[in-house]
Amino acid sequence: MKSERTLREEMIRFSHLCYERHLLVAMDGNLSCVLPNGDILCTQAGCHKGLLTDEHLVVIDRQGKKLRGRGNPTSEMAMHLACYQERPDCKAIVHAHPPLAIAFTIADQSLAQCVLPEVVLTLGTVPTVAYETTGTKGLADALRPYVRNHDAVLMDRHGAVTLGTSLLDAFCKLETLEHTAKITATARSLGGIKTLPPDEAVALRSMGLKRYGGPPSAVAKADSPGADLPQACLICDGCSDPSHKGLAAPTGVSAVRVKGPGLDQVRKVVMEEVLAALKGEA
Ligand SMILES: [Zn+2]
């Protein structure tokens, strides 16, 4: 367990890195981590992360009550507290406003796609939480089901939250998320993206959860069909639907990885749907 002194130094270093790596600007974003006694060290409300010093750090308890430090804790603390409540394994959280990843949410394009093998391996898919006003309990509550199963989550028109076993871990996930958005946007501008074949995505995710860990609920699914990937990824040839939830259009078929007779069933349902639609048009 790292000392409070070391954790304070890390908070300063990673706040500066968030700014230097263009993951936030001005007074955006906030960071927090769990102290050895279980209290939470967080950034002060309204401070510049690129200029952050030890004076801008505040200690609060698990209910959000300020215990030590100058000024107020970040106004988005409810979000951090909800994450720590849902994920006892989480020891640090970074919330930033990575510009390319946010642009994906504004364009209603999903980052919950299996495109880059390394990302599927280490992070899985990145879902987007529907819009809620920043700093509210509504946003904190909306995040809960997502962070239970994911270490990196996007919030519509707002930013990203990444959870880690350390500040370095949470920061790496944030960088990976923004890097993925950059590569995906570049590929789209060059003509389109090719998603990983579903079998490969499933094998990579299963391997990654066992090798690198992840949310306990996801690790528990490492050996189940499709691991923790969205079901929609597993019945189409790559998850090509760019809706903000990253789920393919409903087919009326709820299935995990479909093979053999199951696949015939899907074909039959699709064919029936197509024939019914054609009849309707005639
Ligand atoms: Zn924010």
CATH class of the domain at 4-189: Alpha Beta
CATH fold label of the domain at 4-189: L-fuculose-1-phosphate Aldolase
Q: Please state the CA-atom Rg, rounded to the nearest Å.
A: 20 Å
- Judged by helices, strands and strand pairing, the structural class is alpha+beta
Would you report the number of β strands? 8
What bound compounds does this protein have? zinc ion
Write out the CATH superfamily name of the domain at 4-189. Answer: Class II aldolase/adducin N-terminal domain
Q: Mind explaining what this structure looks like?
A:
With 282 residues, the chain is an alpha+beta fold. Helices cover 43% and strands 12% of the residues. The protein has a domain at 4-189: L-fuculose-1-phosphate Aldolase. It has an 8-stranded mixed beta sheet, sandwiched between helices. Strand 3 (57-60) and strand 4 (66-68) form a beta hairpin. It is elongated and about 70 Å long. It binds zinc ion. The site of zinc ion has 7 residues, from loops.
